[in-house]
Amino acid sequence: MSQQAGERDEVYREFAREVPEWFRDAKLGIFVHWGPYVVPAWAEPIGALGTVDDNEYWFTHNPYAEWYANTIRIDGSPAQQHQREAWGGADYDEFLDAWRAESFDADAFLGLVAATGARYIIPTSKHHDGVTLWDAPGTEGRNTVRRGPRRDLVGEFRDAAERHGVRFGVYYSGGLDWHFSGGPPIIDGIDASRPVDRAYADYAFDHVADLIEKYRPEILWGDIEWPDAGKPEGAKSMAELFRRFYAVRPEGVANDRWGETHWDFRTSEYEAGREHEAGVWENCRGIGFSFGHNQLEDESTSLDAAGAVRHFVDVVARGGNLLLNIGPTAAGEVTPVQRRTLEGLGAFNDAHGDAIFGSRPLDPAIARPGDAPWVRWTRTGDTAHAFIEADPGSLVTLDIDPSALDPSADVDVRDGAVVVTVGEQSVAGLVRVDLPLAR
To answer: Does the pTM of the predicted model rise above 0.85?
Structure first.
């Protein structure tokens, strides 16, 4: 859940630098949320983050299935009622033991990821429930190696990513750990509920240090915040973790949810945090309204292939990356709804990836986007690429300065405006028109 940083503290200014080009070029990453919450797999699909203004209503009816351990503790919540009726009010940790991941094949999973065109993958290593997907220090067996799947899932993701040529990162929730910190459920705001003490700061430090040492991730993706006691300079500080990370991965990148410390790129989530979509940034979202698998979601609450393509192109045209989530089932399978969307996105990228990956936004002094009809622009070299959503055969006037185009190009200019005829879609999504630019 989005809770971003503001200004860098002086201690962390040593890490400020130009963001590596590989991340700017990547455009598409795949998020993976997987934990004990996929056993009940239940949340109310009330809408996208950033579209519900009432915090108490949001948390009580939370559409994020990965927040199940919190939602079932809110008195009177539908999730609490469901937990009693479907599971007899079972302790949350019973879901860890019931989670088997018996059908999970990391290579098949990464094959699907690679086929989308994604350049990087970021699985959860620990979400807010505190369960780790590797044998993390200090967890006393509350992890997927000692219980439930009895597998090092972080390691399996990492190894398969390397085999498929996909860069590997890790998600870690440093801002919340309901098991470690205890306390009442979050009903209104997060900040008052997050653990900030030295004990938790050391615990989280040991986890992230272990992830860096064992798995050498190229992306550190934190969430919510970082415990306040671990922010000042010291042997077990966030600054020390960044030093270790960049020593192992000089071209690595970190997001902006490690508190007011350091970040290489900013993040938004669904419709929340849109004010951070400037400079180097990434939008994350699920195919549905939840990141974790939610049995209540179907086609009506999910992006289809065309919707995913449109969202992806919009993000890229505005200069961002998209981190699109897959929520595997408890068995480790990708649902048919999500698979169809991912395969459709992959087909689009197979056809048009040369105008997407490695592209940059087109200068608005040259051309502007439109919503009637829907048009977005990217640029590679001396070519402007228009992505258009309109009926085949229709005439579309593009908001582009004709004088910016190569004068030798065969372009239909009418009354000072560039007009194109929309062709047939070769794949689900959008139609592309390439226009050569003046040099």
So the answer is: yes
